[in-house]
Amino acid sequence: MKKVLMGNHAAAVGAALARAQVVAAYPITPQTQSIELLAEMKEKGAFPGAYIAVESEHSAMAALLGAASAGARTFTATSSHGLAYMHELLHWVAGARLPVVMAEVNRALAAPWSLWTDQTDSLSQRDTGWLQFYCSTNQEILDTTIMAYKIAEAVRLPAMVVYDGFTLSHSYEPVEVPAQDAVDAFLPAYRPEQVLDTARPLAFGALVPPKEYLRLRRSMAADMARAETLIEEVGREFGEAFGRCYGVFDAYRCEDATTLLVTSGAVGSTARAAVDALRERGLAAGNLRIRAFRPFPAQALRRFLGRGVKLAVVDRNYSPGASGIFAQEIRAALYPATARPPVFGYVAGLGGGDITVELLQEIWSKVDEGKAEKTQPTWAEDAR
Amino acid sequence: MLEIRFHGRGGQGTVLAAKILADAVLRSGKGQCLAIPEFGVERRGAPVAAYARISERPILVRTRIYEPDALVFLDAALLSAQTLGGLKPGGPLLLNSESPAARLAARAPGFRVEPIAATRIALEHRLGSQASPVVNTAMCGAVAAYFDLCGLEPLLAAVREAVPVKHEENAAAARQAFEIVQEALHARA
Question: Which residues of A touch B60 (CB under 8 A)?
Fold first, then answer.
C-alpha cells in the first residue's frame, strides 16, 4: 500500500516490518521522529519489541550491544553529535560482530552549530567496521532498512542506513509500504550462532593476544569483502520480491556518457534531473550514485568504469587537510585499474546548502570541457 | 510540474499543509507530490516556509524551490519583496485575507493576488482563536481547488488523517474553502 511518509517514518516503519525486537534510542534533531514513531507504536500495541529509553547515545548503543549479544534483532537511530558520542561503542558492536541496524540522519557537526544535512558525521565513522548505505528517496530508506538486516546478519557486521537530514528526514512523499507477510518471507528471524545465555555461559570480548586479534580482524575484513557481492544479491532478491532492485551503486544514463556526476544520498536524485537537462542540450551526461560506502564497491567500480570517461565527484562532506571523502575513496579504488578515469573533486552543500540542478550542470560542464582543477578539490555553491 | 512555495509562521501548521496536499494528491491517483519543509530555528511565530512539487511523473529534484509557479501565504503580513522573490511573472499568490483583490494587488504588482478568507473560515469552525486561528486546513482546501490538484473526497480524507484534533471541523473548513474557490473559478470561466 502506498502512503505519504517522511523519511524518518520510513526508517521506523522499515524497522518495525523487520520485526526489530529491541530499540534503545535517544532523541536528536533531525532524527527524532523515527524513534518517536516507534515509541508511539509501542504505546498503542502496534510494535511488540522492547523500547528502552536511555540517557545518552553512548548508552543506547551499549544497550544494543547487550541485546544483540543475547540474540535480539535491534534498531536505533541517531544523528551528528549523537553519532559522535556513540563512537566508542560503534567499534565495540562491530568488533563483537553484532548485526545492529541504525538509521543515521546526516547533520553537520559543530562548531558552529548547524542542524542541516552534511555527510561528515557518518563518514567520520568509516573505520569502525559498520556497513554504510546512503539513500536517495524515502522509499529507499524503508527498503534499505529491511535489506540492511538481511545483509548485516549474513556477514555478522552492523549496518548504518544513512540519509540526509531535513531533505529526506522531514520531507513527505509516497512510499510503497510492503505487507508484513512479504517482509517475513524475505527476512526470516535472526538466528545467531552464539548467544549470551545464562544457562550456557560463554565469555565475550575477552582480552586476546596479538595473533588472535589479527586473525579476528582478518575474518572481519573477509566478511566485509563478502558483503560487496551480498549487497548485490540481496538487492536483486529484494527486486524479485518487491519490484524494486538495488545494488552497490545506481548508474543512470551512463552507457555512452563522456563525464559522470558521482553522487550519494538525496543529491543522487537531484543529479538525475541535472543529467536529463544536460541530455536535452545534447550533452553525454550520466549519474553514478554510490549506495554502499562500506564496503566501498572498489571492484564493481573498476569493472564498470571504462577508458575515456571523466568523473565529477560531488561531496557533501569534507576531510580537512585532504578532500571530499567520496573523491578520496574513488581515487584509491581506481588507482590499480589499467584504464584509470580522471577524478575531479567538488565540495558542495556543507551544513545543508542546496546542491541544485543548475550547480550540478555547472560542475558537469567544467569537468567535461576540461576546465576543472585536477589536484585540489573545488568548492562550489549555488549563488542563491 | 507545479512548484508551490508556502509562507507561514511557526505553529500555524504550514508544513502540515504541504503534507496534507501530498497525501491528497496520492489518494486522488492524479500523480504525486513531494513536500519539503524549510526548517529554521523552530520557534512559535517565526516565519517558516515549505515547498511542494506536484507532478504526474516521478519527482527527482530535492532542493528548495527558487522560482515557484505559485505562492501561498497563511499569514498576509508575511507578504514582502523578499517572500515574493522568484515568483514567476503573473504567477498566482493565494493570500489569507478578506481584503478585495484589487486593494491587495498594489502589494504585489505584476502578480495575480487571490484572497482566501481562511481566518474567517477557521474561526467559523472553531479552529484556534481570534489571536491565533488555525488556517492551514482552509488554505489546503483553497490550494487544492485552485490548482485542481485533487477532488474533494481525497482532500477531506487527507485532512482527517493528518490533523491531531477536531477532525470534522478541519475537514469542514477545507471543504468550505475548496467549494468557495471552485465556485469562483466556475464564475470566471
Answer: 269-270, 272-273, 276
